[in-house]
Amino acid sequence: MENPHAERQNVLLQRIIKNVDKCTENVLELNHCLEEIVRANEQVRIAAELVTKYRKNVQYNLEATRGSQTETEEQE
Questions:
Q1: 67: pLDDT confidence band, cut at 50, 70 and 90?
Q2: How far apart are alpha carbons 64 and 12 in whole angstroms?
Q3: Residue 26 and residue 21: Cα distance in Å, rounded?
Q4: Does the keyword Acetylation belong to this entry (predicted)?
Q5: With the C-alpha atoms ordered 8, 13, 19, 21, is the resulting torsion angle positive or negative?
Q6: Is the pLDDT of residue 68 over 80?
Q7: 3-state secondary structure string across 21-36
Q8: What is the tens place of the pLDDT at every residue in 30-39?
Q9: Which helix (DSSP H) or strand (DSSP E) does residue 3 occupy?
Q10: How far apart (Å, rounded) are the C-alpha atoms in residues 54 and 59?
């Protein structure tokens, strides 16, 4: 006669293994999606850096232009 506790444990272990396999699949899919997001965001990050550098250059040039206009007005 088989042990009913062993049968029950076997059924529970099979359910656990099945659920862990599903979790593993989902984690792998999540990792794949996150990698795609990171790749997509790389272009956004580069664009943001370029805009920031452009804004700093514009600000510098505006300040330099204002400074030269002030000097010109003072000389007149």
A1: confident
A2: 75
A3: 9
A4: no
A5: negative
A6: no
A7: HHHHHHHHHHHHHHHH
A8: 999 999 999 9
A9: none
A10: 9
